[in-house]
Amino acid sequence: MNDLLNLSIAELGRGYRDGTLSPVAVTRAALDRIEATNGRLHSFNTVTADAALARATAAEAELKAGTDLGPMHGVPFGVKDIYDTEGVLTTCQSHVRAEFVPDANAHSVQLLLDGGAVMLGKCATIEFATGGPSAETFFPPARNPWNPEHVPGGSSSGSGAAVAAGITRMALGSDTGGSIRGPAALCGTVGMKPTYGRVSRRGVFPLSYTMDHCGPLSWTVEDAAITLNVIAGYDPLDPASADVPKVDYTAGLSKGVSGMRIGFVESWIEEEGNADPEAVAALRAAIDVLRASGATVETAQLSPYALYQACGRLLVLPECYAIHQHDLIERPELYGRPTRERLMAGAFVRGSDYVEALRLRRELAIEVNNVVLGQYDALIAPCSVVTAGRFDGLPDDPMKMSGMMTQPFNVTGSPAMSICVGYHSNGLPLSMQIVGRAFDEATVFQVGAAYEAATDWRERRPSLALEAADAAE
Q1: How many CA atoms lie within 13 A of 431 on its CB side?
Q2: CB distance 13 to 118 below 8 Å
Q3: Angstrom distances, CA of residue 220 to CA of 118, 169, 252, 253, 417
Q4: Among 80, 200, 241, 414, which one carries the catalytic annotation?
Q5: What is the pLDDT of residues 394-416, one digit of tens each?
Q6: Read out DSSP for 121-180?
Q7: Residue among 302, 289, 337 nearest 455 (CA)
Q8: C-alpha to C-alpha distance for 172 and 79, rounded to whole angstroms
Q9: Are 203 and 435 in contact (CB under 8 A)?
Q10: Quick one: how far is CA 300 from the chain centroid?
């Protein structure tokens, strides 16, 4: 079981095709690990075991018969519980949607299923992808597999926890202010937020129409690149979908960074007054690894982080209030308090402030995509400058949570990826953020793969996953 779940998506694919591995055996191992860990981890809300085993059985027969549907054929995956899944409960972690069963799949889920992938079930989230972890939600909040007394980040919390615990190599998430990269940072996985419009959001419950992104959380950069090859592409039924050419994101993974010019957004660290010294040291050490691998890394200047954050909040808050206005008025008691308070804040944003934020957003997007990334191939920025907090230490006000520095690249729409850069003395993961030009995810993957190849962080798993593996043997 342990060996099967440690195999990459590419390794699974090779084993399936040469007959040395079985999609059914891999799916059973994943389901067994959910059963072994979910009582403590709560990474999955709904497990579709029968459907998963049926799909794995079909994938095994198809591959034996010579029908190859692509790189995810027979590979298990998880789905954040805000993605529609045909015939499967989709709650958004909320009592508001406690009985909602969609009659169609979200576009990206359908692409994975069409490619033969095996859906394990629905991963926990934070209610409606906003607010904070709460015992008031329809399902219990997911916990961090490195230490279940700590949060896994949000809002793709179950996706990050499931990948870190070795249940699945990939789970779908969404990202409006860092909800892919945040759980990736705190759970020690890879979290890829593609360029705005690169992956269709159709069938995913919205938080902010102008800031929502969809993408994968995975164990390695290669796993994320393979996944993006499947789910990226133009969807004419998503108004925000970008009609741009598809590329093979795995093609440049072995190119390295020799000769690249990379900018380091160092000033943001000083802005975040509670940055953990070990987190900062790990980020600087990661930059040294890139330099040793042949890249030139220089300090890059961007506008203050606080300006990006203010711009993002003035856009997200009124948009999410507009989406929830009816239910907030008619049945506010069905929302958990952190969610309700954050959503209600959007009612107090003036139209003039929203318009000013739209104007500022364009200026900030030009600064990143045209000016700064006109000088560099990619940027390195802090992702989280603290480790995962404890559940019993969360602030009462969900707006006061700090330490995550991801929102700027939702404002600009740039592709951005969180990657693990080591572990704190407290045993929790540390992170950095790699940012590229619009629609240049390939370079982000290239930098991430080079760093990953030069380090051994992917060889470590949380004790909770190891305990589950030992129990299965």
Answers
A1: 34
A2: no
A3: 19, 8, 15, 11, 11
A4: 80
A5: 887 656 667 999 999 999 999 99
A6: EEE--SGGG-S---TTSSSPPP--TT-TTB---SSSHHHHHHHHTTS-SEEEEEESSSTT
A7: 289
A8: 5
A9: no
A10: 25
Cα separation, 387 vs 429, whole angstroms:
7
Does residue 80 carry a catalytic annotation?
Answer: yes
The two tokens of residue 191 are 């979290």
Placement of tokens 């994938």 in the chain: 59
CATH of the domain at 33: 3.90.1300.10
Q: What whole-number distance in Å separates Cα of residue 107 and Cα of residue 200?
A: 7
Omega before residue 156 within 30° of 0, cis? no
pLDDT, tens only, 306-352: 999 999 999 999 999 999 999 999 999 999 999 999 999 999 999 99
Buried b (16+ CB within 10 A) or exposed e, 417-443: bbbbbbbbeeebbbbbbbbbbbbbbbb
Is 208 a catalytic site residue? no
Whose tokens are 């961090």? That residue is 144
Task: Kindly state the tokens that stand for 413.
Answer: 């729409």
The count of structural domains within the chain is: 1
| Tokens representing residue 210 in the block | 């102008």
Q: 108, 134, 159, 179: which is the annotated catalytic residue? A: 179
d(CA 328, CA 317): 14
94 catalytic residue (yes or no)? no
User: Is the separation of the CB atoms in 444 and 436 below 8 Å?
Assistant: yes
Collect all residues with Cβ–Cβ distance below 8 Å to 214 and sequence separation of at least 6.
Answer: 108, 172, 173, 174, 175, 194, 199, 200, 201, 204, 231
Secondary structure (3-state) at 26: helix
Residues near 154 by beta carbon (within 8 Å), at least 6 away in sequence: 125, 126, 129, 132, 133, 179, 182, 183
In angstroms, rounded to a whole number, what is the distance separating the alpha carbons of residues 225 and 163?
Answer: 15
Name the active-site residue from 134, 155, 157, 418. 155
Domain of residue 355: give its range.
2-472
The span from the CA of 336 to the CA of 212, in Å, is 22
Q: Between β-strands 76-80 and 118-123, what pairing exists: parallel, antiparallel or unpaired?
A: parallel
Could you tell me what percent of the chain has a pLDDT over 90?
Answer: 93
At 419, which helix (H) or strand (E)? strand 416-423
Residue 42's closest CA among 172, 165, 129?
Answer: 165
What average pLDDT is seen over the chain? 96
User: CB-hemisphere CA count at 13 Å for 388?
Assistant: 32
